[in-house]
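Q: Site-specific integrase, please. Structure only.
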Amino acid sequence: MAGKQAKILSAQAARDLMLFAETTRHPDRNRVVVLLSLKAGLRAAEIAKLTWDMIETAEGQIGTVIELRDAAAKKRHGRRIPLQSDLRNALIAWRLKSQGEGPVIRSERGGAMTPLSVVVWFNRAFRATGLDGCSSHSGRRTFITRAARLVHKAGGSLRDVQLAGHASIQTTQRYIDGDSDVQRRLISLI
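A: Structure for Site-specific integrase:
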């Protein structure tokens, strides 16, 4: 897949990925893995490095934002990402079944999953669901594209989509997949 961007997931493909996670040996953990990608736009390495204290309040409850620290983020550019409700609920459920401290995503052996392990998990999931051309970055691209398409409804701009962690707006723009139907409607209005 060198030189190609990861594919954007349709709503059905995202549901298929969630259904796959439900059929695995660790459905609660894997649901969180998928949602961290699709609903928070985290990279595989950020998913692997996420710790409970980055999502907990001072009282130890699951908060409303991910405080992604510099040490966990690419190029040491930490950021705050609001927690989407499905992701927050999945984190609450997962914490009840997991140790609730240290890394959020643990391997079967108990330690943190490595970034490579997260990438491999996504590759297996996409292969199992028949989604060709997808990678661990597909959820991130899907998140950024959906955010860009919906940001006007929240009263924001493309600058607000930079919560994905890009220093440059041009980098964020490269992640956004155009919609050919919208482009056709736009041209018909001209």
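A: Brief note, in case it's useful. The first strand starts at residue 65 and ends at 68.
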